[in-house]
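Bumping with the actual sequence this time:
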Amino acid sequence: MTDVQRAGMSAGQSLAHSASTEWSNLVTTAVLGTDRKRLPIPPPGWESLRPVQDPAVELLDRAAAVATARRAGMQPLAAPLRIAPVPFDERPECSTAAANLLARMLGGLHDIALPEWFALSVIGGVRPPAYLVPALLLRGRRNPAFDLVARLAIGPRAAWLAEAMPELGVRVDPQSPPAGTDPFLPPRPHADSGAVVSVIVEMFLDRSASWAAVAQLRLAVAAMDPAWLPALSLELNRAPFHVATERTRVELIGLTQIRREMMVALAPTE
């Protein structure tokens, strides 16, 4: 180390010490009040730049000078680690209509059709919108079978987000479903969807389509051949009103409609 470097280091240490002393004196005076304690004489270099009569104003001027010097002399913090960029996914995002349907089902509206949404998105070569990826991963924390299907649809961004945002509490790699867990897939299609439509209509005519039977009726509609959905929708709208079946009728009409909208929104494009 040269003499110039030693002198510079010594001057810097002396300045740091005098700034610390000045700050301590100013804090003590501010706590006690300038009317009870006189301002001490400042160390060399820390004198007020303008003469003032009010001790309180002088205290503020000197405090501002020391605070500015302390901030200017702070060492910069280490640069934070940069995360890897988002992995590239050549698949386009799904359409706005398909994204809105997914958001509605994630909110609990006719979510029995969720497996079909994922199946159609894979066939169509599209992925969920980025703003719904956290919700999909969070839902997968409590349903490993859902998580596997959702990550297949999301693609490599699922693992990237789990690593970039550990506060989500999401695994980087998906968890294997417990043995015996049903896969998160659309229900097996009926052999004769036309016959199913007839049975559902008969249930409304004899008023047995009460809310107690809605779970089985939802499953029947979810498994129906899409070609028969318009016919079912027409028959449900024709069904006579009855207080025992009206709630079920509205539920099935909504499920039929959301499936028909999915077929259009997620139809493969040439």
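The tokens above came from a reply further down the thread. The radius of gyration is 35 Å.
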